[in-house]
Design brief:
By secondary structure, the protein is mainly α. It contains two helices and no strands.
């Protein structure tokens, strides 16, 4: 009589990580943001939303956040 135990192989649970953003998804997000800004500009009549100074200011404020 043997006293050995049969051990079942245990599978490690799959990690549920964050999904990576693919290039098409990033481009769709950018296009959606641009369309939203354009729609707000058309509805409100505020042409200053897309002026050069406004866009430059938004980029200057976004760079430290992105870093």
């Amino acid at each position: 009589m043997s006293t050995s135990k049969a051990t079942a192989a245990r599978h490690a649970p799959k990690k549920v990580g964050r999904r990576k953003l693919t290039l098409p998804v990033v481009l769709l997000i950018i296009a959606g943001g641009l369309a939203l800004v354009s729609l707000v500009r058309l509805i409100s009549g505020a042409d200053d939303i897309t002026s050069v100074g406004q866009v430059a200011g938004a980029l200057e404020l976004a760079v430290p956040i992105g870093l």
